[in-house]
Amino acid sequence: MSIDRATAAKVAKLARIRVEEADLPALADEFNAILGFIEQLQELDVSDVEPMTSVTPMRLPRREDVVSDGNQQAAVLSNAPDAREGFFAVPKVVE
């Protein structure tokens, strides 16, 4: 597959990228180079390669899923301008 100037202009328009008319041949060449790399990758046999999510095999640390208050009440309320009885105190706005 080869990309010509008209296709490069169409891709630029779809991507909302302004490309000057003089720069379209260079953009088409870049697209063709990218497609060439993709064709090279398609030649590889990856049928025996396991899918992976990271280049380093590791398991995510897990914790027990329990409901808790976070034990952060004092730290959270330390930033409050007014706290009473373990809660944020706010001015009354309803009469």
From TrEMBL:
Catalytic activity: L-aspartyl-tRNA(Asn) + L-glutamine + ATP + H2O = L-asparaginyl-tRNA(Asn) + L-glutamate + ADP + phosphate + 2 H(+); L-glutamyl-tRNA(Gln) + L-glutamine + ATP + H2O = L-glutaminyl-tRNA(Gln) + L-glutamate + ADP + phosphate + H(+)
GO molecular function, one term: glutaminyl-tRNA synthase (glutamine-hydrolyzing) activity
Entry keyword set: ATP-binding, Ligase, Nucleotide-binding, Protein biosynthesis
EC top class named in words: ligase
Documented EC number(s): 6.3.5.-
Alphabetized Gene3D superfamilies for the sequence: Glu-tRNAGln amidotransferase C subunit, N-terminal domain (1.10.20.60)
GO biological process: glutaminyl-tRNAGln biosynthesis via transamidation; regulation of translational fidelity; translation
Protein family according to the UniProt entry: Belongs to the GatC family.
Record note on quaternary structure: Heterotrimer of A, B and C subunits.
NCBIfam families: gatC
PANTHER family per the UniProt record, alphabetical: GLUTAMYL-TRNA(GLN) AMIDOTRANSFERASE SUBUNIT C, MITOCHONDRIAL (PTHR15004:SF0)
Summary of the function given for this chain in its UniProt record: Allows the formation of correctly charged Asn-tRNA(Asn) or Gln-tRNA(Gln) through the transamidation of misacylated Asp-tRNA(Asn) or Glu-tRNA(Gln) in organisms which lack either or both of asparaginyl-tRNA or glutaminyl-tRNA synthetases. The reaction takes place in the presence of glutamine and ATP through an activated phospho-Asp-tRNA(Asn) or phospho-Glu-tRNA(Gln).
UniProt protein name: Aspartyl/glutamyl-tRNA(Asn/Gln) amidotransferase subunit C
Biological source species: Roseicyclus marinus
